[in-house]
Amino acid sequence: MKLAGIKPPRHFYWRLATNCILALILLPLVLVASRSFMLDTSNLKHITTNLLPLYVWNTSILVIGTSAITLVLGVATAWFVTVYDFPFRKHFEWVLILPLAIPTFINAIAYVGLTDFAGPIRIFFRWLGTDIYLDIMNHTGAILIMSLVLYPYVYVTSRSAFLLQSSSLMEVSRSLGQSMRRTFFKVVLPLAWPAIFAGLILVIMEVLNDYGVVSYFGIPTFTVGIFRSWLALGDLSTAVFLSVIVLTFVVILLIIEFRANRKKRLTPDKAEPFFSRLKTKRKWLLFSICLLPVLAGFIIPVGQLLWWFFLAYTHDVWTSLFTLVGNTAILGISTTLIVAILSIILVYTFRLVKKKGVKKTIAKLPMLGYAMPGAVIAVGIVAFILIINPDLIYSSILALIFGYTVRFFAVGYGSIESGMEKIPSQIDDAAQSLGSNTFRNLIRVHLPVLKPVLLGALIMVFVDVAKELPITLILRPFNYETLATNAFQYAKDEMAPRSASSSLLIIFVSAIPVYYLNRILHRR
Amino acid sequence: MKLSVEHISKSFEKTQVLKDISLEVKKGEILSLTGESGCGKSTLLRIISGLEAPDDGSILLNGQNITSWKPEKRKFGFVFQNLSLFPHLSVKGNIFYAIKKKDQTAEKLNHLVEMTGLKGLENRYPHELSGGQQQRVALARALAINPELLILDEPFSSLDELLKAKLREEIFDLLRSLHITTILVSHQASDAFLIADKLVVMKDGAIQQSGTPSEVYQKPISPYVSDFFGASVIINAKNKDENIVETSFGSLKIANNRADDFQLFVRPENIQITTSRDFNLSGKVLKKEFKGPHDVLKIGNNSTSEFISLETERCPHEVGETIYLKVPEKEVQIFK
Prior knowledge:
The structure holds 2 protein chains of 2 kinds.
Chain A: H1 12-35, H2 44-83, H3 89-95, H4 104-115, H5 120-127, H6 139-164, H7 167-175, H8 180-209, H9 212-217, H10 222-232, H11 236-263, H12 283-311, H13 317-352, H14 356-364, H15 368-371, H16 374-388, H17 397-421, H18 426-433, H19 438-467, H20 470-475, H21 483-492, H22 500-522
Chain B: E1 2-12, E2 15-26, E3 30-34, H1 41-49, E4 56-61, E5 64-65, H2 71-74, E6 77-79, H3 91-95, H4 106-116, H5 131-144, E7 150-153, H6 161-178, E8 182-186, H7 189-195, E9 198-203, E10 206-211, H8 213-218, H9 223-228, E11 233-241, E12 244-247, E13 250-253, E14 262-266, E15 272-274, E16 281-291, E17 294-300, E18 308-312, E19 322-326, E20 333-335
Parallel strand pairs in B: 3-8, 3-9, 6-7, 7-8
Antiparallel strand pairs in B: 1-2, 1-4, 4-5, 9-10, 11-12, 11-14, 12-13, 14-20, 15-19, 16-17, 16-19, 17-18
């Protein structure tokens, strides 16, 4: 027998590395899915009859309510900013994205502070000689609070869709006698729908992922159920069961999105170059409509946090902040580096191995992590660690970074992938014809070109880690505090003013990618 | 129906794109707006249709001032250069886009698709149609609203030459038979000649000349207009004697009372190559180019660096020969 005839396939090491990375990233999800076949059925009856309806009900209300509000807010503001001319329009383009910098649970903390007994609203009414009782710790409150900081997802995707639409479609509709309003509903909206829907899916994923708001407000959703069964009761089986249900829902959503995108019909026309914005008599109305979400979703909560910060200010704020920043930075930087390196290997391998059909699907797989609620990923990682060694303490910095990597891999991978696509493949051929090997090409040719994209991707991953709550709460080592957990803990302990410094710092860091998002919007 | 454009001016930022434009279209008339790209013709169309507001001037429809009307109120059928079919709607959906539900009858659809040659394609989507078919849908959609005025912006620019010729003839026949008032914008002279009752030539945001196609062709008022509509021979000249004009190729008998330098213009098909010297131009054939149906001669002489580029039928003369050109006085235009 001659074995020498068998040659390893081209780019063997790249392929090997890629397969390992894919396996690692998808492992927690696969574990959660496979575990569902080995459920411990003893608790199952209790859960399905008593808890499940409650989880389904609460989660559905939040998802539906938040979807409706973010849809209206996001699409309307995007439409006004794109088409009409009104005061400060240019500034609204990016200011409208700012609320995205506030994590949902921090917004909740701020609003609870605003409306409680010692908050400015009730102080004001008492000053008027009356008192009102405002309870926002319920479904309506949760929906509003989440919508106010999540609508930018819809805003960003709708706006880029509106910008890409040919203005002559709108003009032709008007010249045929249709008003702006009818044109919007008959032409603009149907054409932009796939993009708007993609933004809406991000909102829904964030709502499913949320643990901070719902646990603070005492609304038992799926995430709360997963937390309770694992952290309070140590019941992995139930946690997995609940995770599988959420996972199924997310997969259905992704399939719907995939189909919506596939149906997206191509517009052959290019956007018209000269596009004068429409003058309107109601320009101050449009101004107010756009100001409202910025005010309620950014300025007011940040104001409240600043007020608290000065209220609770002591010199030792800085010492505790120092540790928190250190912890957060270590986690953020490690995750960021790992995501960057793994993404580059993956993206580069898919570039080298040019297989159309399979590649397209496999290349999208690592995106799955971002769609999964953090609690589900955390449960998967716990399950993984317990399989390796049941005696191991599952909560560790390593486990945390693993969790973050799975969840935020898509953020880095996505932008690096699209950056790589813009490098023409002839460059590879040219470099290779000069006798350079694939690794050298990557270092000498692709990475330098990718540098700006890479930087943007790294910042976005870092910010996501800094904001993350559910994975951190489940997988962090005992007494290990990050900015996010610190803010959350103080709020839960009714010491909200002391959470202000951590919250403000998170918001400040998170505002950086807003700049990048805005730049992407302008690259049309 | 009568549309009057009166003293329209428009600037974008600091560049003035339209300068005091006035024109008029009468019922059933087909007006062709031509000029090189960037001359402001598209902006003028957008102002007429209400998509852009003029800085100055007004648009009158049957004497009524409609300058401030929104485009949706004017209901001028506008066929855009890029066609702008709604990609999410079928052919039927596109044609019926602006038609009220109760008026969306099979009869109306049938009439429109038959007229525009789209029979059998009603349920196709724009991306499933050829360029020519898309063109027809755009036209059918504009005709469906029974517009008082039809506006066609470079309607054939996206088609290849062969398809264009065929479709153009068909569409022009249709427009003629419908007696529909039309403004056609084109940067191609041949479109204008084929269909226009009236021609308006624009340059740098101003009207250079307007008139019937043959007026504009035979009696252009400037080198820009003459070159735009075909080959032209332009020769520098000055007055010599009464009714005698001198050029570097010889003298011509032309009534003229200008004293200073000017230019003579004549269409090449009006120039005859002869053997007689009298009051004819003469020159040497410097170059002879084969251009398919005709030859192009480059004619010059030793006394000048100027030369005449003459498009002519098969020419028996060869390079180096001296030839004489007969230029009939009535065909000559004088540019200052």
